[in-house]
Amino acid sequence: SKQYSASVPIPAGIAVPLGYAASAYYSPVTIPGLGAGYAANGVATVVPEGAPELESALLNQGYALAGTGLARQGWAVAEGVEAGENLIKYINGGGIKGVKQILAWGNSMGAETTQALIQRNPGKIAGSLPACMASTEFFGDTYMTALYTWKTLIDPSIQGYNYAPGQAGYAQAMGDLQKILTTIGAVASGQATVSSAGYPIALANLLGGLLAGLPTVSPTYDGVTVNPAVATLGTAGAIAGGYSPLSSGQSAAAAMLQNVGGIIGTGITLQLDLEGRARAIGSIPANEGAAYVGNVGVNYSKLLSPEQRGQFEDTFATAGPGVLDAMLAALAAGERVEANPVAAKVVAGLPSASAVYNNKPTVALAGTYDLRVPGVTGDFVEGMAKSKKGKKAAKKGMLKAVAYYSVPPADGWTSFEPGAKSPSAALSALKLGGSGVGSCPFTTDQTVAAVKVLAALAKADSAKEVTAAKRLGYKVPGINRDRQYRPLPPKDPAATVG
After folding, report:
1. What pTM was computed for the model?
2. Domain segments of the chain as ranges
3. Is the peptide bond before 490 cis (omega within 30 degrees of 0)?
4. DSSP secondary structure code for residue 484 in this structure
5. Alpha-carbon distance 76 to 85, whole Å?
6. Angle 201-212/323-333 helices, nearest 10 degrees?
7. Is-contact 345 282, C-beta < 8 A?
8. Less crowded by CB within 10 Å, the N or C end of the chain?
9. In the sheet that 26-31 helps form, which strands lie side by side, from edge to edge?
10. Is the pLDDT of residue 374 over 70?
11. How far apart are the C-alpha atoms of 209 and 369, rounded to whole Å?
């Protein structure tokens, strides 16, 4: 099942830093009035993007691979389910010869689509492999927290939600993307430090990411490793020489610039798309906002856990005493967003997957420090286990649902060229090895193993065979072997109200 793609063309200056220009699922276009850009295309998703070795690995083991494009881009679970059903008809009609059973899989929105597809067609699919699951509910809350922090503490000129209908809203959204990416770039290069609202940008962004539940590591910054210059020059000398990062807190803040950039970069186009869908389906007038998530009554101080405050209090204190409390006070006093009830109802009513077990094998994959969907997989698989059929199967040792979490190297991965002022993204990514950190961070071996587990679970007829099948997934390098582990659940802003 295809993952999320933006429903609108993205100007080249924005598309390149967001990675769209390098994606097989976006094509160069000319945007009227804006020039060069990139737009999502109809290329079918056969294997997850960025995993060319996975295709040959599975084909060599006798699997046939098939996928589809979508009738529309944006949040398109309904269209993905329809496309999946058409593909199943094609396969069962003899379009692909020698098929013994059908296994469904997908990343991000594709994972949600996969689960919705199997729930609608349980007799036609033998099992599913949802990876780095996403949902509109989780993404809406996460985006709202990060965006509200930016709008309040960093750039009040950002629109962020309640976009105007049509081209006016598109212009607002692209303007927001340009402003945010430009600011992040300026902070990362040391050209900007304090926002127009008077707060340290890097620390305000760090706070927003912590409140949103985003990880404090990225593919470049492991949140621990400091520049080797500290050892030779001392902290004062390294500061004078312009080296970074100089502390674990500074590393985490740099990582959060990348992570918040990712969540907002995707979130703005998703917000625009879902607001547009809500307007069309719910007949929302042009003079009304169409935000489907609000933050009225949210207590942001409660979203900052005691553990987070304890870990980063010294980092915030580097900007001066009381800065953290001042930013939290500003968030408490900021102008809140009231969700349009019609928009909220429309978005909640869009096709989605339920966390229920239907006796079909489900093998979920998630990264321990995924940029966009931390904790969603854990909630979903736990919900399956607690459902009526899940409890019944578990009592017999026949629960064919399991989640595997990829992990990064235990000794860190931030790497430097000799004498470099800052880390090397390429060297850091190489040491990271594609496991545990980033968007859908899985190695070829991890995904192939998950497919093997899925096939074994589909054949398992006893509790002993189910246990043996699940054991296969824990033998792969880079998979957390603690079977009781699960990431922290997503932050719940609604729980802080009142």
Report:
1. 0.94
2. 138-348
3. no
4. T
5. 14
6. 60
7. yes
8. C
9. 10-11, 35-40, 26-31
10. no
11. 13
